[in-house]
Amino acid sequence: ARPHRHLVYPSGTASRRHKHNPAIRIMQWNILAQALGEGKDGFIRCPMDALNWQERKYLIMEEILTYRPDILCLQEVDHYYDTFQPVLASLGYHGSFLAKPWSPCLDVERNNGPDGCALFYRRSRFSLQATAYLRLSAMMLPTNQVAIVQTLICRETGQRLCVAVTHLKARSGWERMRSAQGADLLRSLRGITSQRSSGQTEAAPGAVPLVVCGDFNAEPSEDVYRRFSSSALGLNSAYKLLSADGQTEPAYTTWKIRPSGESCSTLDYIWYTQGALSVDCLLDIPTEEQIGPDRLPSYHYPSDHLSLLCDISFRDEPHRLM
Ligand code: NDP
Ligand code: CA
User: Fold this and answer.
1) Which residues contact 194 (CB under 8 A, 6 or more apart)?
2) Which of 54, 257, 262, 282 is the most buried (most CB within 10 A)?
3) How far apart are CA 208 and CA 229, in angstroms?
4) Atom 25 (ligand 1): residue with closest C-alpha?
């Protein structure tokens, strides 16, 4: 069975939910591309049987459907058209997908196409205002990493919400590339969130509240993390609110064993506009015991990255950034 995880209501974040302003549930998850898991990753303590797509796909869907997010941000999706798009569409979601230009999945024999980022939202809660498909640049040069940015309109309240999903360059030695990709994404987000809606006459920078989900492939000590936490967009990282002091990221969001050794690190984040949105609750991080001695992925959990999940609501009186 998948580890049982609890929703945690951080102290000091009094629930601001109303009948007319229900929380928005957001899930961020690098689901592990099927081709990479079987053909490239080298998870030496994970039995090959546990990576069989015909069974693993149910564990992934079970994780998503257990929590029924309103917004779902996925990385390493290499079964969008044959699995996630049709299944989630039948459950009331609208989906968008952007493949990496040179997905490493394509190097794997009998691959299922390139992996990429996918963004789903629940159609009953949101309508779509605009979508931007971005190929991230670094030092003016196009890279192999992408992002999807969508401006949604909350059907119940008419409020706009901008949501982004990304997967930055992996591996150590590429810290400056990640930082430059993050800077490029922030630049795009500044432009997108300052766009006026039809009724407004003036554009305000950061006017639209923003949620950015991603596998940043960066520990909190990295430059790209500092860029996001100190940007003019006023972003905070939701999972810090799980910690006792509200200032510390979880100890890990991914934990795996490769031939090179064990790797336990915090790489995945949900950023949100702190002045306009508040976090009501978060799904806790499984303990070392729940993860198990062979770490991830496993028969019990289908990816080497943990899903992140939180409920976010609009603040009654936004603390304006202008
Ligand atoms: P990244 O370095 O960003 O990593 C790609 C994937 O590899 C990620 O999903 C990452 O997972 C995973 N990964 C991270 N660390 C390891 C590891 N130690 N062992 C195995 N897998 C790991 O890749 P790029 O997007 O920059 O693409 C690089 C690859 O793309 C090349 O290796 C090549 O295969 C291919 N390529 C092909 C080109 C062509 O002309 N055909 C051109 C350019 C690239 P996570 O994010 O979870 O850490
Ligand atoms: Ca991976």
Assistant:
1) 203, 204, 205, 206, 207, 208
2) 282
3) 18
4) 144
Delineate the domains of the chain, giving CATH numbers in brackets.
7-194+205-314 (3.60.10.10)
Q: Is 170 in the pocket of ligand 1 (CB under 6 A)?
A: yes
Which ipTM did the prediction report? 0.92
Strands of the 7-8 sheet, one edge to the other: 7-8, 277-283, 308-314, 24-30, 71-77, 116-122, 93-99
Distance of CA 163 to the CA centre of its chain: 10
**Looking up tokens 């209501």, which residue turns up?**
9
Looking at ligand 1, which atom is closest to the CA of residue 174? Answer: 2
Nearest CA to ligand 1 atom 45: 170
Q: Please indicate whether residue 101, judged by its CB atom, sits closer than 6 Å to ligand 1.
A: no
Closest alpha carbon to 21 in 271, 315, 275, 273 = 315
Residues 278-315: pLDDT tens digits?
Answer: 999 999 999 999 999 999 999 999 999 999 999 999 99
